[in-house]
Amino acid sequence: MADTELATQSKTTSLKQQTSSLDLFRPTSLSEAWEFAKILAESGMVPKQYVNKPAAIISTWQFSLELGIGLMQGLQGICNINGTPAAFGDLPLGLVRASGLLESIQEDDFETIKKNQKATCIVKRKGDPIETKVVFSYEDAKTAGIFGNNVWKTYPYRMCMFRARGFALRDKFPDVLKGLKIAEEVGDYIEGEASEQPKPSASIVIPTAETAAPATEVKPETKAVVTKPDVISIDEAKQWYKAYSATGHKPDEAKAWLKATFDITDSRLIPSVQFENAMAWANTPKVEENLDAEPA
Fold first, then answer.
1. Same domain, 98 and 76
2. What's the structural domain count of the chain?
3. Between 275-282 and 251-262, two packed helices, what is the crossing angle to 10 degrees?
4. Distance CA 203, CA 161 (A)
5. CB atoms closer than 10 angstroms to residue 172
6. How far is it, in rounded angstroms, from Cα 84 to Cα 208?
7. Is 172 found in the same domain as 96?
8. 119 near 161, Cβ under 8 Å?
9. Residue 126 sits in the same domain as residue 159
10. Using one digit for the tens of pLDDT, what is the confidence trace for 197-217?
11. So what's the pLDDT on residue 22?
C-alpha cells in the first residue's frame, strides 16, 4: 500500500513539474523563439492576422513583454493597424487595473448611453486628487464623420463607451499604457483599417548553431541606401482628416480623392510639398447633389 501511494505521489509531483516547466517556458535564443512562433502560427489558435506569420508573432511577443503581459494575452489583445500596434477591447483597462494605480472608474451602462446618446467615463488615479472625466457623444462621432462607419452602425453605444474610456485612460495613465494606441480610436481614421502583415520579399531564415556559416566565410555585402519619401507628419494627417470631416466629406470620398490625385489611399503618404493642396481640398465644403433639379 505504501509503495502504491509513493508511486502515485511521484507521478503527481512529476506532472506538477512538467506543468510548471510549461508555464515558465522562456526561449533562450532567437531560434527557440522562432520555432515556438511557427508552432503558434500554424496552430489555428491565434487571430487571423497572425496565421502563418511567425515574424508578426515575435514582434507582438516583444511588445507584450514590454507591457508586462503574456504572449497569448498579447496575441488576443494587440492588433496591427497599418504598422501601428494598438490594443482593443478590455486590454487597456486590464493593464491599468493590473498596475495597481487605478483608484476608481465610473462608466455609463449601455442603457444610459442609448438614452443620452453619449458615454461618460470618470477615472481617478491613486495619489492624484483630480479626477479625469471624458464624455464622447453620438454627435462627436457624427462631427468626426465616423458614426455610420463599420461597427458604429450596429453598436454605437459600445463604441461610444470605448472612445470615452480610451481617452480617459490615455490621459491619466500614459506611463502604464506606454504610448499604446487604442484600436477603436485608430480604426476610425481613414488609414485605420486593420491591415494584414506585409509578406516578406524572401523567406526569413533564423540561423542555428548547425546552419550558421563559419565566421571566416562571411563576406561583407554592399547595401543600397534607401531614402524615405518626404511625407506629411502624423499630426498633419490628423489635421487633414479633421478638416475634410468638418466640411462633410466621408472617408471613402477622401480615399477616392487620394487615389485619383496621388495614387495612394493612406493620408500619411501625402507628399509634404502637396500638403497645402490637400488641405485646400479638405477645407472645401462638400456640395450635395440636388436630385430635384432639372437636367441641364
1. no
2. 3
3. 140
4. 42
5. 22
6. 30
7. yes
8. yes
9. yes
10. 444 444 444 545 444 444 445
11. 43
